[in-house]
Design goal:
With 614 residues, the protein is an alpha+beta fold. It contains 15 helices and 36 strands. Strands 8, 9, 10, 12, 13, 14, 15, 17 and 18 form a nine-stranded antiparallel sheet that branches. A seven-stranded mixed sheet has the order 2-3-1-4-5-6-7, with helices on both faces. Strands 19, 20, 21, 22, 23, 35 and 36 form a seven-stranded antiparallel sheet that branches. The radius of gyration is 27 Å and the shape is globular. It starts with a strand and ends with a helix. The C terminus is likely disordered.
Length: 614
Amino acid sequence: MSLKIRNLAIIAHVDHGKTTLVDQLLQAGGTYRENQAQQERAMDSMDLEKEKGITIKAKNTSIHWEGYTINIVDTPGHADFGAEVERVMKMVDGVLLVVDAFGGPQAQTRFVLRKALAEGLKPIVVINKIDRPLADPMKVHDQVLELFLDLDATEDQFNAPFAYGSARDGYFMDKPDDEKVDCIPLLKKIVEFIPEPKADPEAPFSMLVSNIEWDNFVGRVAVGKVLGGSVKKGDTVWLIRKDGTKQQSKVMKTFSYSGLATTDSEGCSAGGIVGVAAGIDNVDIGETLAGAADMEGLPFVEIDPPTVSMQFSINDGPLAGKEGKHVTSRAIRERLMHELKTNISIQVEDTDQAGVFSVSARGAMQIAVLVEQMRREGFEVCVSRPTVIYRRDENGKLLEPFETLYVEAPGDYAQGILKSISNRKGLLENMDTEASGRVFIQASIPTRGLIGFETELVNLTSGHGIMSHLFKEYAEHAGEIVTRTTGTLVSMDSGAATTYSLQALEERGILFVGPNDAVYAGMLVGENPRVGDLPVNPVKEKHLDNMRSSGKDKTSKLTPPVRFSLERAIEYIDADELVEATPKNIRLRKRILDANARKRAAKGPSVEDRSNRG
């Protein structure tokens, strides 16, 4: 029996056009009525995705074309969200690899493609943005084939079909010089080359849970590909957990994902992608839903381990509870545990300090996205600087994670970039210069050295530098890395910052606060160009007398303060500092707010040493 179903994931590096390509396929599949307004980047449904212009969560939809149901999974392109890609590999039978016709295959392309080829998935290569100036589709075609060779593709995978076009302008062709018409050539390739699902309609029902969604009426919804039999409302199913335990339940609802909507469905047969709500609160990604109690759990894809951890703690500053609804450690812990259920690459552990939790993930950006979501939900939380997760080998030697760093920038900036990589203990592996003058640098660098590197690169190259990175291995500890060479201006007093005192502080360094901003003792109000912390008073008022008028300050001009984004703030702070994230503000502060307590903590060990010597 032929299954007229095609399941595929769209994979690519950040900004190579995945989500725009999905828009075009939705349009070609008749998702929109003739008079319906078309959404741009329709699959980026989270507010953060729309703002940042990147995909964070893997999401699925389907289109119907010439009797075929084409299920499409849109995946993130940023390395920090790699686990979102890894887990959907079991849900699909082929991949659409999207590559920029100018940039060629990048770091994340390599990572995601390796996972797809290892699962035995059939690729179709889409060379996108061929309308860009300096685009060279044939050169990129050869680079993709070299990448296939590098990643040990099988002969069938190596002979992948290619399509050329522009997702933004809505056309794809079999050859770069064909007539530019529409997306039909790509849809034909999908139907022809993506294999039909390996699923047995006659077998008992079985499904591997690859995604979790939430429905306000029925709770957790398990999403996956039906590998055997079929499922419908009222069926009895067993949840087979990773430890082998089983739980019986009844299917309350099934959902289908079509176009832009999630709709109640009559059920789903073998090979299709379905959402199943069975009233099981703690169903998890990687578990199996089965139609018979004696069935075995299905194998799940291996997820790469986290390499970076940060501490989340309650906001214990003087302004705590003034902006957020959720401020207790219990509320923060519950929210982090809720995140664990849908995000399999994050790990949360309680620490020996009350109200402090250790959160581990793939990268600082992944944790920053979680903090941003939490503050939008009304949480107040303090987070520490990211630290890497160390290991020891069998001989007790300290190991740390290393990454392969890829940098692309105009040639004039190469010297500064190489110096910065060297300062962060990076080792140059390869360097190429193109005819256009752009330089491609490949280096091996400790994960610690990457924290804050992106901001430095943007500043070094006036915004022209592009970087991406990929986990490489755990290797011997590289020694001390100094990423911040400046000190800070620390407030000694609490209150509202005044123009009068900020004017005096401007000479001392760069300010992070403006007039009337709420300030408290121990908060960072600026950057000191010299190493070390300088105590300052930003709330001092002008003493008025017969000779000094209060109105003069109103005309004085201050340089606008530097306002940190959450990611930048997390990278900027030092080990003894925290970022206080609330629904309305991002503040930088010392861990210990009291100046005298800070001094005692800094002196602690040295005082003991002296007494021991005596």
